[in-house]
């Protein structure tokens, strides 16, 4: 593309406040841009920024022809109206796919959204790449059951599934009795657990034989800040070790859906740039 | 409201072509408007109307301050781009709730669409009015499974359900073995079956003891055109007589979800008028 356009695709990230996990996610996204030759632009704003300042930053990126994708890292600080900030992103640059028009066009039969939300696209991409057939395949005609915080006996519903996709944000939610033998598990949960540096990471699903959770590692520089006394590690929604004994395939956390989600963000940015350059 | 505004809410219907069932649906909607004091405007256009003529009719209704709701009766003739025609309806007057922005806002957590699609709203209203608790109740936290044309063993999934909502458009799809004893069935299917006037209506799910479908009536003026040699009758997706032996409640077709859907259309039109008059 650069040979034709002399211009690289560009991704702009807006980060408000100082959540460690958000900072880390944004860093990963920018690093991924560097690796594939996408220009990146980062706006970091303090926690107490007024909402119109954030909206203004978004507007400037909307107008900037070298920016083809804009992502606002969520969650925003509590005093902000997340909906208003997200709605300010121009539809053509909404590479996260969070604009309600994109969501509506994704939900409606016969319509095509400009962008598919990256984590959902990552799940589909993983299934596709590993050759998992969704029933009927034609536009993914699978039977979908949505398990909910208020669902009675969620494990009974989950245990019927050929493919389990968990995005609950609850560590160790999906246990052995939730999983049918031979099922495929995609763990979208990325739950940051804060610990002191050097603490042991324990797997709450297993005890060590004398009643304590089994140690599975030590908290090191997982937040990539060498001056910190704190560290954190990421854990998914699924008891990985338990699941491993039952499943035919499973994505780990970290290192599973996360990196593929970032790849989909880059892919959406590339699509956006192609549309802007009239190449699609 | 009229005492305050001196103006009635107004609903505009656009009907293209001469499908008997569409004509009948639109007539029912206009009649319902008359009954409750909502002004109605009907644009009937021939089957072969160019798309820009239809779009122009919609635009005029968009600009007309006495119109607060616009519905385009579907399906449109095959030569038209349904998506483009629907997108031409102003978001503020989209009382059918088919605009992708409304669908997106309906799908997304924490957002409110301007209008909820009438048939879906009718199902919720029926459950509410008859005191059926959806699990957790708070914003309707039910566990939802979507059965699909490509679902394997759909009857096994359906038989697990406390509440079955069928909107497949397939007569006699939901049989005895799809239904758990005590379930609640909402039949959204409205399938027009064409027959000659005076023909017997037969229930395909039951035979008369000698191998023929049981007669359950005679085709009369169900399409309300006294000069027609044809009649049609409506049937739902569910074998009503079979279901009746198992369910704790069921909606009939006709006379179930249909009239409530029209009531929801009027309710959306009223909401729209209130917003236009600054009364909400």
TrEMBL record, chains A, B:
CDD domains: NAD_bind_m-THF_DH_Cyclohyd. Its EC number is 3.5.4.9. Keywords: Hydrolase, Multifunctional enzyme, One-carbon metabolism, Oxidoreductase. It comes from the Eukaryota. One of its GO terms (cellular component) is cytosol. Residues 6-96 form the Tetrahydrofolate dehydrogenase/cyclohydrolase catalytic domain. This is methenyltetrahydrofolate cyclohydrolase. It comes from Vanilla planifolia. The lineage of its organism: Eukaryota, Viridiplantae, Streptophyta, Embryophyta, Tracheophyta.
């Amino acid at each position: 593309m650069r040979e034709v356009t002399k211009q690289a695709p560009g991704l702009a990230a807006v980060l408000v406040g100082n959540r460690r996990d958000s900072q880390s996610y944004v860093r990963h996204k920018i690093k991924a841009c560097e690796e594939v030759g996408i220009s990146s632009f980062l706006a970091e704003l303090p926690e107490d920024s007024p909402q119109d300042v954030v909206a203004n930053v978004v507007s400037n990126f909307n107008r900037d022809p070298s920016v083809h994708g804009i992502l606002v890292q969520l969650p925003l600080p509590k005093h902000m109206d997340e909906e208003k900030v997200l709605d300010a992103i121009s539809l053509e640059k909404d590479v996260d796919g969070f604009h309600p028009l994109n969501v509506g066009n994704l939900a409606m039969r016969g319509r095509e959204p400009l962008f598919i939300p990256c984590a959902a696209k990552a799940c589909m991409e993983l299934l596709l790449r590993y050759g998992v057939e969704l029933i009927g395949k034609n536009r993914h005609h699978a039977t979908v059951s949505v398990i909910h915080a208020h669902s009675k006996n969620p494990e009974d519903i989950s245990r019927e599934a050929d493919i389990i996709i968990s995005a609950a944000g609850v560590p160790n939610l999906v246990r052995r009795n939730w999983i049918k033998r031979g099922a495929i598990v995609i763990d979208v949960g990325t739950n940051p657990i804060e610990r002191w540096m050097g603490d042991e990471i324990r797997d709450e699903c297993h005890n060590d034989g004398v009643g304590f959770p089994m140690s599975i590692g030590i908290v090191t520089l997982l937040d990539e800040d060498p001056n910190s006394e704190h560290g954190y590690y990421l854990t998914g929604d699924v008891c990985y070790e338990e699941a491993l004994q039952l499943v035919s395939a499973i994505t780990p956390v970290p290192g599973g859906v996360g990196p593929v989600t970032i790849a989909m963000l880059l892919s959406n940015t590339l699509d956006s740039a192609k549309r802007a350059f009239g190449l699609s």
